[in-house]
Amino acid sequence: MSTYQVTMWKLVIACLAWIVTVVISQSTTTQCDAYSNLSGTYYNCSSRGYRSVPMNIPYKAEIVILKNNFIKQVRSNSFVTLTNLHSLDLSNNRINTIQISAFLGLNNLQMLNLSGNNLVFLMPELFRPVRSLETLILSHNRIENIQAELLKDLVQLTTLDLSNNRIKVIHDNTFYDLVHLQELYLQSNSISTLTDKTLNGLLDLELLYLTRNKLVSISSEFKELTRLKFLDLGNNFITTIDKDAFGNFGRLTELGLENNNLSSVPKAVGKSASLQLTLRELYLGNNPIREISGSSFGRFTYLEDLQLDHMKLSELSLDAFKGMPKLRHLWLNSNKLKTIQKESIIPLRHLLKLYLDENYWNCDCSLFGLLQYLDQHPELATEKVIPCHTPLVRVGEPITKVLELSCDLESENFFSRSSSETPKEMTKKDALLVAIPTTFVMTIMLLAVLCLTTLSAKKWLQSSVKNKQLSGQPQLRRYNHQRHQRPQREHSKNYGIEVQAYATLEPPEPSPLPTRKTLQPYAYAYIDKRGSMQATVNLH
């Protein structure tokens, strides 16, 4: 046999093996469901255990569903006979390879779903046979790069979903030919930068998702998106936004900037003249913003929802929301607010819900006005019980307990409704101001009592010792005078006889000498002018 014949035989055997494999796989699978309705003729082969695209799909099928199978590869000409097909669902398989002519013959295809597969790379000419495609879903794959040539021929595309991939960079003019694209989903990727030309050509774009990426700053990337209505930039790392970044938005109704690193309300938002006329929903939650002042926002005529939760707000000015007459929902929960003046909320006449839980509420009279207003408008409150954070006597109690107190709102002093209660609620600071001086005075008094007690005991002890010693020794002539100071005890020895004397600081006055008849043994002692002790002992 010649080499040519051997090669032919090998090809024949390979073809037979492939046919056998297909037949076996078809025989081990369950029959697909075929039915028709107003949407068209369906051929549903989802969750049937297919490992390849089935070959027995009716040529009249208009909607083919092959999701939730084990298909790994889509070969060329797999759908070449399905000329009526306008929707193809290949989601949630294991597809990692799509041959270049896989979609050949699908001239009327409008929707292609390839989400939930293992795609990493797509050949540039892959979608050339499906120029009529309107919806392309490539989400939840492993795509890292999108080439501009890949989407060049999809001029009728209105929806493109590239979310939940591994895209890091989008090249300039990638979407330039998608002049009819209205929805672009790029969330949950690793995009860190956008240039002025990244989104070129998207003149009809209305919805753009860029949430959960790695964007740090926004400048003029959206200058051509004049028809954009929805923009989600949440869950990024944005710290700065150029003041003119949103200047060309004339139709934007919803803007998401939550979960970023913004330290204040961007001027591109608060001072944007175009946004003030169109914006209806604004999400700024979970940013490290500490204060909302009257200058933070302009006059947002049609704003209905404002999210300011999970921030570091500690203060709201009285005119913080003065330019939002149609606000319906206001999220202020999970901040560091201690009080809110009712004047901040009263202008919001169309308010439906006010979220105030998880704050550091100080339950004193500064909060009374707001709670009184909410008590008059119970529809604004949520079902959650909001506890007090201070003062100590009210920690954990519902903030509505403040309504049980009578407050002088002008002086911000509140009084108990009961005459037996104290006139003024004592705060922790007031308690300390009272307790510290009181404790100091009581301590001084206690020390004084201890000193007096000690001195009295010592004097009594000295008196007892003196009386005991004098009772067994010769009498000493003592010269005590009222003006003399307390005597000091001295000891002297003369002629072997111990003499005890109580000497004063001044020399004693001389006493008359005793006569011989009355002369008795006695000791005479005094202190001379030099301060030394002199003693004389006379023996009878």
Can you walk me through this structure?
The chain is an alpha/beta fold and 540 residues long. It has a domain at 478-538. The chain is built from five helices and 29 strands. The chain has helices spanning 3-27, 267-270, 273-278, 368-376, 428-470; strands at 33-37, 40-44, 63-65, 73-74, 87-89, 97-98, 111-113, 135-137, 145-146, 159-161, 169-170, 183-185, 207-209, 217-218, 230-232, 240-241, 254-256, 281-283, 291-292, 305-307, 315-316, 329-331, 353-355, 405-408, 413-416, 488-494, 497-503, 522-527, 533-538. A 15-stranded mixed beta sheet has the order 1-2-3-5-7-8-10-12-13-15-17-18-20-22-23, with no helix packed on it. A two-stranded parallel ribbon has the order 4-6. Strands 9-11 form a two-stranded parallel ribbon. The chain is elongated and about 150 Å long. It starts with a helix and ends with a strand. Mean pLDDT is 81; it is low at 20-29, 411-425, 473-508 and 513-540.
What are the SSEs and their pairings?
Blueprint: H1 3-27, E1 33-37, E2 40-44, E3 63-65, E4 73-74, E5 87-89, E6 97-98, E7 111-113, E8 135-137, E9 145-146, E10 159-161, E11 169-170, E12 183-185, E13 207-209, E14 217-218, E15 230-232, E16 240-241, E17 254-256, H2 267-270, H3 273-278, E18 281-283, E19 291-292, E20 305-307, E21 315-316, E22 329-331, E23 353-355, H4 368-376, E24 405-408, E25 413-416, H5 428-470, E26 488-494, E27 497-503, E28 522-527, E29 533-538
Parallel strand pairs: 2-3, 3-5, 4-6, 5-7, 7-8, 8-10, 9-11, 10-12, 12-13, 13-15, 14-16, 15-17, 17-18, 18-20, 19-21, 20-22, 22-23
Antiparallel strand pairs: 1-2, 24-25, 26-27, 28-29
